[in-house]
Specification:
Layout: H1 16-28, E1 33-37, E2 41-42, H2 82-85, H3 88-96, E3 99-102, E4 109-114, H4 117-126, E5 131-134, E6 139-144, E7 150-154, E8 157-160, E9 166-167, E10 177-178, H5 181-184, H6 193-200, H7 217-232, H8 238-253, H9 261-273, H10 278-292
Parallel strand pairs: 6-10
Antiparallel strand pairs: 1-2, 1-3, 3-9, 4-6, 4-8, 5-6, 7-8
């Protein structure tokens, strides 16, 4: 990746024009930028997509740019098209922007965001040297390669790559190293959701016979298919919908032992296709189990 040469000046509050110039320099170098409002937050969705009325596209599905005229859908607003960046629809966002961010995955990068002194000590002892960008609380370590983004993979450590944004704080210092397996492993350190779920669902049947109380296997299959459909068709409040569906499935099938790895994997796959992470799925499943006392 060719890095632009602008470097952050400590204590300097950039003007809207400077934010736009930074964004255009990033775009010219192949780095897709987007404006951030106060609090390092993206701008809200456009009127047509307010409250995810559009179904949350595209960040609820697969990595890709947003096609809305104004900066919309968080990270997916990032673009290298100078015409879009200069457009009238984006002008208000630049006037109100507090910072510039970029989509690391869109430029082939993964950012390891280190926010505490303990996280920095761990990184220096565990990860290969690479380009470093200093932040207000710690450092961003940039690696060449993309992966699933994940928050809180360790205390004070987030991973920002696909379907995520990072604040632009300058090009940094040092050569960019290849993304190491040690970083990839951070996002998959937990057991797979299906395996974890099947181990948790070892609840014996009240009668002690270990047989499913449902009338036919088709009853369970129909229930799982309906659950997948409800998750897939969710157009808003995806987190709440996934939890509600998990709760319903466990209410109906969680005590008889008939759920298999394959059934649970289908539910997790449907949820992840809507943008839920494996961690969010596991949390929702755990909360549903706890609520039902399983």
């Amino acid at each position: 990746m060719t890095q632009p040469t602008d470097i952050r000046r400590e204590g300097h509050r950039a003007s809207p024009a400077e934010h736009l110039r930074t964004a255009l320099r990033l775009a010219a170098s192949g780095v897709p930028p987007l404006p951030l409002r106060a609090g390092k937050l993206p701008f809200g969705n456009c009127p047509a997509c307010a409250r995810n009325a559009c179904g949350g596209r595209p960040n609820m599905k697969t990595p890709g740019p947003c096609t809305c005229p104004a900066p919309c859908h968080g990270w997916a607003a990032a673009t290298t098209d100078p015409t879009v960046l200069r457009s009238q629809e984006w002008a208000r966002a630049w006037r109100d922007a507090a910072a510039v961010a970029y989509h690391p995955g869109g430029t082939g990068l993964t950012v390891v965001d280190l926010d505490t002194a303990e996280a920095l000590v761990w990184a220096r002892a565990s990860l290969p040297a690479t380009r470093i960008v200093r932040t207000t609380r710690g450092e961003h370590w940039l690696y060449q390669g993309v992966m699933q983004s994940a928050n809180a993979v360790r205390p004070g450590v987030d991973i920002k790559s696909l379907m995520q944004y990072a604040r632009w704080l300058g090009p940094g210092i040092g050569a960019v190293a290849a993304l190491p397996d040690a970083v990839r492993a951070l996002a998959v350190k937990e057991p797979s959701p299906a395996r974890w779920a099947s181990q948790t669902l070892t609840v014996p049947l009240g009668g002690g016979q270990g047989e499913c109380r449902h009338r036919t296997p088709a009853y369970l299959e129909r229930g799982i298919a309906m659950a997948e459909q409800h998750i897939t068709q969710a157009r808003s409040e995806v987190h709440a919908t996934v939890y509600r569906i998990f709760l319903a499935v466990l209410s109906a099938h969680g005590r008889c032992g008939c759920l298999t790895d394959a059934h649970v994997a289908r539910l997790f796959t449907a949820a992840q296709a809507k943008g839920e992470s494996a961690r969010h799925c596991t949390d929702a499943w755990t909360n549903a189990l706890t609520r039902l006392g399983l």
